[in-house]
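We emphasize that the prediction below concerns an isolated chain of 270 residues; any contacts that depend on oligomerization or on bound cofactors are therefore not represented. The input was used exactly as deposited, without trimming of termini.
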Amino acid sequence: MKADLHVHTNVSDSNYSIEETIQQAKKNGVQYLGIVDHDTTVGLEKALKIGEKYQVKVIPGIEISAYDFKRKRKIHILGYNFDLKAVNIQKLCDPIIQRRYENCIWQIERLIENDYNISLEEVEAKANKSTCLYKQHIMAVLMEKGYTDSIYSDLYRELFKDKGICARDIEYVDAFKAVEAIKKDKGLAILAHPGQTNSYEIIEELQEVGLDGLELYHEDNSPEDYKRIMEYALKYNFLLSGGSDFHGDYGGKTDIGELPVPFKYVREFL
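Result of the prediction step, given as a token string:
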């Protein structure tokens, strides 16, 4: 049995629809699929129904854009199997969506001021199924205009990193509040890809407010990360999860199901 507990759809920052994502999972032999769009629960009920159609068990989830204020570090918190009304989760996450939307408008304005051939309407067309505008939608328009040939190209780094004309971060939510919101909505809270964000120092503190587990299988976790994650898992009896972090053509190197999670871990999410 193949499982992938970390995929995104065009409800956030993939270019694959919910149905296309589930079709891809089916094609790749994945039977258990965790859909964890960024900062929103929109589309999860639809995903459950489409999953039944393709005989793929959808595990409803979310990936919350959080922040470790003590160490000034971005981290992501995954939530699974919460009450789909998600009252506490959405109360926490809706302001993130609004801040991200406003920031993307500012970024588009900066591009126009610097003579890039781009418009808000073109970016909104790319994001017409998403709850928000994302940098990936901006880059997709720039690709079509011939400015670059890939999303995460030199142009992306030039524009959005360091002192680029579009480099401006939004305020994320406190990581502790993210875990607490998931728990209040009766879900499982998992720290996403610790190897990518180097978020080990906060693990002991998060488990005190209800953190349930860690993401073990991820393309950015190194062999050393696997070892460290397993040590924490044994110490705190954590659940383990993982997956492809699939974003369609908008990012990532791993296809759905290419980094499968053993069923002994998946069982805890069903």
